[in-house]
Each structure stands twice: as structure tokens, then as C-alpha cells.
Amino acid sequence: MAFTQRSDQTRTAILTAARRRFASDGYERATIRAIAADAGIDPSMVMRYYGSKDGLFAAATDIDLRLPDLTAVPRERAGQTLARHFVERWEGALADEVLIVLFRSAITNETAAERLRTVFGSQVAGALAPAVTDPAELPARAGLVSTQLLGVALCRYILRLPPVVALDVDTLVASLAPTIQRYLTEPLTSSARLDG
Fold it and tell me: How far is CA 87 from CA 21, 33, 76, 130, 150, in A?
């Protein structure tokens, strides 16, 4: 029992140190040696638990976006619900450093970018499925919704563009919600229809 508890504490210390180091240094510059030093352990322990830097990164960025159940939301309010959830996920009670670690690292590292694509691709599409009437359109709609969510995240939390940072939460949600709603429920217009 004591060994299991000590093992869990070591894993927690490693993940905490890894998230901080990946957030501050990015994937490329973060090293197993630095993460181990931050956790107060030998680097061989990091390798023992996670096998590689990629394995450690995957564990450190294992994230559940905790997306709302859209079956419990009127279809016309799905955009508002998603916009509010994501803004609060970034800066409210559900905020954590994992999203920032993943996002910052994804900008410069293909492993991290693939991880971000996987998280958003599977979780967003899964959550949107009840709000999308044509299942064939789900991947495109989920991708378009993700462009808005990730774009706001980049501008507000990573690049910290002053006009976007200055928006209060309610204004940001109200501005974002109609676009998300449109991507969810309005017809996807083909170029043929645009030309006609």
C-alpha cells in the first residue's frame, strides 16, 4: 500500500513538473533531465514511468474537454452553450494548465500538434453529433467549430492580443456564439451555390 501511494505521488510530481516545463519551455526545449530536477527525482524515474519524452508528453496532456451534453440543450442554444463552456474551460473553474501546455507545444511540434488534433477531433465531433442533422457533415462542422475555439484560445491566452484580452467573458461568449451556432446548424454552402 505504501509503495503504491509513493508511486502515485511520484507520478503526480512528474506530471506536475512536466506540465510546467512544457508550458514554459515548449516541447522542443523541455528535457527529461530538467523535468526530473523540477520534480526532485532522478531522470531514470521519469523514463521508468513514461518510457520517453513523447510518452511523458502524452500523459501530461491527457485531457478531457468536459464538453456539455448537447442533447440536454435546445438546438438553437448549442452555439451559446459551447462558447460559454470553452471560455470557462480556459479561464473559469475548469481552467488548468494542460490546455495551455498542449496549445503552446502544438504550434512548434508535430507530436503535440497531432495530440491537439486528436483531442479536438474526437471530443468535439463526439459532443457535436447530437446537434448535427447530417452525420456526413459532422467532420466539417466539428472542424469549423474548432477553428473558432482554437483561434480565440490562441489570440486571448497565448498571443494575448490586447483587444481580445480586454473583452469580458460575457462579451466574448456573445461574440463567439453566433459563429459556432452557424457552423452547427446553418447549411454548409458549396462554392457552386456561392457562384450562383
Answer: 24, 34, 19, 21, 11
Using CA of residue 147, residue 152, residue 158, residue 164, what is the dihedral sign? Answer: positive
Q: Residues 42-93: pLDDT tens digits? A: 999 999 999 999 999 989 888 888 899 999 999 999 999 999 999 988 886 6
Give the CATH number of domain 2-60; options: 3.20.20.70, 1.10.1740.10, 3.40.50.720, 1.10.10.60.
1.10.10.60
pTM of this prediction?
0.78
CA 114 to CA 119: how far, in whole Å? 9
The residues, ordered by sequence, that sit 6+ positions from 29 with a Cβ below 8 Å of its Cβ are none
Q: How many CA atoms lie within 13 A of 194 on its CB side?
A: 5
